Amino acid sequence: MPARNTIFLAFALGWAEVLDAADIYIGVNALDYSGYPDCRPEYIAAFERLANLASRAATEGGARLSIHTPLIDKTKAEIIQWGVRLGVDYARTWSCYDPVSLADGRVAACGRCDSCLLRKKGFREAGVDDPTVYG
Fold first, then answer.
1. How many independent structural domains does the chain possess?
2. Which residue among 7, 38, 64, 103 is least crowded, i.e. fewest CB within 10 A of its CB?
3. Within-domain flag for 39
4. Tens digit of each residue's pLDDT, the chain (135 residues)
5. What is the pTM of this model?
């Protein structure tokens, strides 16, 4: 998913301007970013600078837009444990980049892509059962 966070942030920036919002939150993670440069703190800081050059609120009204990254320096295990404390139903979440079709027509995570491997490792290290259906 090259540049996906750039796309997400661009849409979020436009929507923030419509809503007159000053804060954008994104769940990027620099520890297990699988080689995507738009998950790094340096990139987020650069996009925040760009956002403040590109938005009417910042250039005309003096309002500053802030991009928040609460997961950026957490391990996958820490993120999973935090989610458990918040009541996240991980059976309703998805990480796979290469899903497979099962014989019964359902779709399952492949269990082999970088994202699946990181998810499995995170659940194992967090001591939490992974509810993901793997093919």
1. 2
2. 103
3. yes
4. 778 899 999 999 999 999 999 999 999 988 866 678 898 999 999 999 999 999 888 888 778 899 999 999 999 999 999 999 999 999 999 889 999 998 898 899 999 998 899 999 999 999 999 999 998
5. 0.84
